[in-house]
Amino acid sequence: MQDFDYWEPDSLAEAVTILSALKGQAFPLAGGTDLLPKLQKGQVSGSGVVNLKHVPELAGLGMERTSLRIGALTTVSSLLANKEVSTYFPALAGAARALGTPQIRNLATVGGNLCNASPAADLAVVLLAYEGRFKLAGPGGARTLAAQDFFIGPGQTALTQGEILTAVEIDIPPLHSRSAFLKHGLRKSHEIALVNAAVQLTLESGTDKIAATRIALGAVAPTPLRVRTAEAVLVGTRGGSAAWDEAAEKVMAAVAPIDDIRSTGAYRRHIAGVLTRRALHEAWGEAYETANHA
Amino acid sequence: MKLPITLKVNGESYRLDAEAKRTLLDVLREDLALTGTKKGCGAGECGACTVLMDGKPVNSCLVLAVDASGREITTIEGVGGLDGLSPVQEALVDHGAVQCGYCTPGVVLTAKALLDSNPHPTEAEVREGLSGNLCRCTGYVKIVEAVLAVSRASERRD
Question: Are residues A103 and B42, on separate chains, in Cβ contact within 8 Å?
Fold first, then answer.
């Protein structure tokens, strides 16, 4: 394990001050499940670790009026245990269940999964589909970014020097809307997604017409990807196999997957289409029922 | 950089100075001589180093010792020994679910935490619950049977 200096701030202001003063030479620590293996291998540039676990402003998970506030320090297992998450955000619960192992989920945090900015991060793709608002705090004050503006590239986020992700907010989806998350890997557990997908469909009340949709995919581009061209072909339609096929075609055209040790790009592109169809179908089944039997 | 830390392990408090870079796993094994916790991959993959932190299984190789300060840690030494095995340990022995034994301490702690929070899991829940503990000998079948047997035995007592 490489040597490092260690800080344990107990307020957001102190954390921001320390991270700013160290000018990129210190690494924030939350769950540690990504950071510790890197420290073990001596792969962390910089000489400091700033443990954010005692910063109260980063904690908490709960409803605030019509949205859910997920504090950055929320562990993946507490997402899974949360009633509001399983009731209103089934795709988020699905992504939490698909992440890592029970041991990892007890340590790993939402903030860490997002700031690590893996293009394959399970929570990132879901928060794109739920149009999460990323709350940041830094030396220049607080600001809010849309999920799609937070991710810049593999391992790269829009966070500036000294800036910290404090929470993500997601609105309770409209009535008659349902979401789904699917992940494809070679194992059932402890797998980095070869491709993952999250969709949300909202139907017009009392009809089977699609009023709005969101489609997001991971591990198929330098960042988790929202595919608006695929969303556009579905709005106003009544869904069904032909519509899902058309959306899947748009997804396959939009993605830019790479070849690596886990998969070829061509296979990822194919699976991106398959997951899009399946996720839409899954979300549709439930949305259809709600709109017509409410 | 040495820091003073207080570790609560198996109900006992230990005060020590540890380098910030040392993991909970290394401090347990090397400073407290609690060598029941095993070091496998050192990267959070295998689950051999599983301990309970505030009752929940975690990979102790992914936790800095300084970050575990003040938390309740349970290691395999805290769940039964020669003077009486815990129910999960008994069941693993009865089912022949221990071969080389290297994964066993982690399996025992993970299974204990699973049964503490969900006393009557389905087979799928047991497999999911143990998905972070790799075993290269048993093929898992006997481990899963053992955990389900503990659940059934406690059902009879309920």
Answer: no
> How many structural domains comprise chain A?
3
The residue whose two tokens read 């996720």 is: A279
Assigned fold of B2-77: Ubiquitin-like (UB roll) (3.10.20)
pLDDT at A293 over 70: no
Does a structural domain hold residue A266? yes
Selecting from B1, B128, B132 the residue whose C-beta is nearest the C-beta of A103 gives B132
Do B43 and A190 make contact, defined as CB atoms within 8 angstroms?
no
pLDDT in tens, A143-173: 999 999 999 999 999 999 999 999 999 999 9
* Region label for B13, one of left (φ > 0), alpha (ψ between -120 and 50) or beta (otherwise): beta
Q: Are residues A156 and A182 in the same domain?
A: no
A167 and A226 part of one domain? no
- Dist. CA B128–CA A5, nearest whole Å: 37
Q: What is the mean pLDDT of chain B?
A: 95
Return d(Cα A111, Cα A166) in angstroms, integer.
Answer: 8
Residue A164 and residue A215 in one domain: no
The answer to whether the CB atoms of A107 and B3 lie below 8 A apart is no
pLDDT above 50 (res A294): no
Q: Block means of pLDDT (10 residues each) for chain B, length 158 residues?
A: 93 95 97 97 95 98 96 95 90 96 98 97 97 96 98 83
Q: Where in chain B are the domains? A: 2-77, 87-157
Q: Which residues in B have their CB inside 8 Å of a CB on A? A: 1, 3, 20-23, 42-45, 47, 50, 53, 56-59, 61-64, 66-67, 110, 114, 128-129, 131-132
> Which residues of chain B make contact with A104, given a CB cutoff of 8 A?
44, 59, 62, 132
The complex's ipTM works out to 0.96
Domain B87-157 falls under CATH 3.20.20.70: no
Q: How far is A185 from chain B (nearest CA, A)?
A: 15
Indicate whether A161 and A189 sit together in one domain: no
Domains B2-77 and B87-157 share a fold: no
Range of the domain at A38: 5-46
A:B CB pairs within 8 Å: 86
Contacts of B62 in chain A (CB under 8 A): 31-33, 36-37, 104, 107
Centre a 10 Å sphere on the Cβ of residue A2 and count the other Cβ atoms it contains.
14
Between helix A265-293 and helix A241-254 the angle, nearest 10°, is 140
Here the tokens at position A53 are 């676990």
Q: Which of A276, A186, A176, A174 is nearest to A234 (CA)?
A: A276
